[in-house]
Specification:
Blueprint (H helix, E strand, L loop, with lengths): L5 E4 L11 E10 L10 E9 L5 E5 L3 E5 L3
Antiparallel strand pairs: 1-2, 1-5, 2-3, 3-4
Length: about 70
């Protein structure tokens, strides 16, 4: 996932299929508070949704790229 990609949330249904967002920031988030084994880094993105007036943070694996900025 890269800055400028057009994305949809993976839970998108036919009722809200036109609710796209654009990736503004790509980063890794450190989860120090977790006690489980394995990686404590989570790939995250900041998305500006066109139907919401503010930017939101999401895990990358919860979004699907519709049109990549390549």
């Amino acid at each position: 996932m890269k800055i400028g990609d057009l994305v949809l949330h993976k839970t998108t249904t036919d009722l809200n299929r036109d609710k796209y967002g654009i990736v503004l920031k790509v980063y890794d988030y450190r989860l120090d508070h977790l006690q489980d084994e394995g990686s404590k880094w989570r790939p995250m993105v900041s998305v500006q949704w066109f139907h919401i007036p503010r930017m939101m943070e999401h895990q990358q694996d919860r979004l699907k790229v519709i049109n990549g900025n390549r």
